[in-house]
Amino acid sequence: MAIFKDINSLRHWRQSLRGPLALVPTMGNLHDGHLALVKLAATRAEQVLVSIYVNPLQFGPREDFANYPRTLGRDLQRLHDAGCQTVFTPDDGLMYPRGRQDISIVMPPRSLSKVLCGASRPGHFAGVCTVLGKLLHIVAPEILLLGEKDYQQLRIVQQMVADLNLNVQVLPGPLQREADGLAYSSRNTFLNPAERQVAPLLAQTLFDLARRSTSAADIASLTTEGWERLEQAGFLPDYLELCDAQTLQALDVPQPDARWFGAARLGQTRLIDNVIVP
What we know:
With 278 residues, the chain is α/β, with parallel strands linked by helices.
């Protein structure tokens, strides 16, 4: 397995490639959702590069950056077993050589980034756009793979790529779930056994709302019902909204291309999910 830790050696390797390259950016602690993206990437490009970097810019001052799970050895083994042979593992000194206090920031589109997670995590998507902008510049892939679990992130990056005329195709990967419906997430490892038993209720609630909203006359009542259901189970909801899948603006009536989005804290763990309206 080729593991690149500096830009020059990565670019030398990149220049030697003859076929298209797909980039799968991650923050490590890889799960089956990540590996599904890697496998999808292999069907779309001759070469696949996975980046592993816990980006401090996308964490707020009271978020879990220090405790975010870092499992590089395990991640490399999982990638090897999945057939991925090329990994980029930069560190803070490489990504932000002048530190993080005085750097150029890539600002996300306002309309997409001020709602949902952006409303409660100010600065988060600027951090996402900045690190992905740097990775795209360093790696120069033809294809960028992003999962639909972080659907708001996907839409923001799609818009960023279009706005900046970046020469890369953003390919979404379907949201992957565990057997009980819980969306795969690196943060699921923070759940204690009791919380892990309750956690699938977020997905169950969203699927129920999606099914019922196709004929509902009152989306607000459905939202309140779902919110109370989560609270009764011990969640602290952040948002529960029916939104247009392209603009991410809230809807008060069902329409084509809509999704239910939910975020809630369970214990010390923040979970997010989304479900398309059938």
